[in-house]
Every structure is written in C-alpha cells, then in structure tokens.
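Protocol step 4 of 6: structure prediction from sequence.
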Amino acid sequence: MTGWAGALALGLIAGAGLWWWLRPRGILALALAGALLTGLAGYAVQGSPGLPDKATPPRAEAYRADTEFAEERGKLLEDLGNVGAWLNFADALQRAGLTEYSVEAMTVATRAFPDSPDLWVGLGNALVVHGEGMVSPAAELAFNRAQQIAPDHPGPPYFFGLAWLQAGKPDQAIAVWQDLRDRSPPDAPWLPELDRRLADARAMQAAMQ
C-alpha cells in the first residue's frame, strides 16, 4: 500500500468513526472533521505520499500515562458536553504520543468555542506537553486568554501554576498560585489542594537555592 492509499484509508476510517461517535454533537463533529482534513492536507504538502510504506518508530518521549492535568482537570474544569469531549480527545492523543495532533485538536476546539476558558487551558496544557514540559510563549498566551475570559475561574491560574512547576520554574508557579490564593474566598473548595501545591513549589524553590 502506498503512502497515499494509507493516508486515504486512515482518513476514511477515522472520519467514519468520528462521524458515528460525534453525530449528535453537530459542530464538534464538523470541527474534528476539519482537523482530520487539515492533517491530511499537511501530509500531502510535507510528506512523501508516493513512497512505499515503512514502519515509523514511536516517539521515545511518548506519553503513555495520563498527565497531571488529565488526572486533575475534573476538579476545576468542565468535563461534560463538547468541552469535556475535546479535553478527553486531547488526553487520548497525548497518551498515544501524538502531542502535535493534540495541539491541533485543541486549536480547532478554541476556534469552535472561543469563549470557553477550559478549552484555552486545555490548549495551554497541550502546548506544554508537546514542548516536553516547556512553557512556551504560545502556552502562556493560551493560559492568559483563559484568565481574561473568566478572571474569577480558579482553573486557569491553577493549571498555569502547575505548568510552571512542572517546567522547573517554582518562582513563577508561586507568583501565580499566591495571587489565586489571595483572591479566593476563605471557604473555597480548591484551597487545600492549592496550599499543598504552594508548599511543593516553595520546597522546590528552597532546594534550587
């Protein structure tokens, strides 16, 4: 099977499966179909579809387990409907080591639902995962956009701080988390976990000094 045939077969199979799974969701199905077509277009432009198939070795750094974001996002982010479906889709791509496609999926999601702070957080996380833990300017922009949309939402600063901590930048994590703590209600349910995270960041900061 040539590269073109393989790409078309993959597109047809994935497209049919996504349409069957997402047909009740309307715009989500269309958005994912657009992402699939974008990927195939990129293959046509940058790939070598005329060459015979050959096995592609898996990425050595492929994520095989859930990230901390995937494990904790249910506490602070929406996990139902279109938003939850997009975040679950990005998690699955990351577990498969397809981090670039995870970024593309979340980019499509934020275009389809630009006012969802949770999806912007998901895009920021996808960029961090794809960057092997580095908080890039694009990731910062995504997290900051989430905070602009919902300034009182604890999710964007919480996960922004987590990204900084995982990047080995405790100073930035403490700054983000302390600001969130200072403006949180005294009975906010996220405070115990936030305090634990702040303690972790301060311990890392002390160890680095």
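Step 5 (inspection) to follow. Residues 68-190 form a domain with the Serine Threonine Protein Phosphatase 5, Tetratricopeptide repeat fold (CATH 1.25.40.10).
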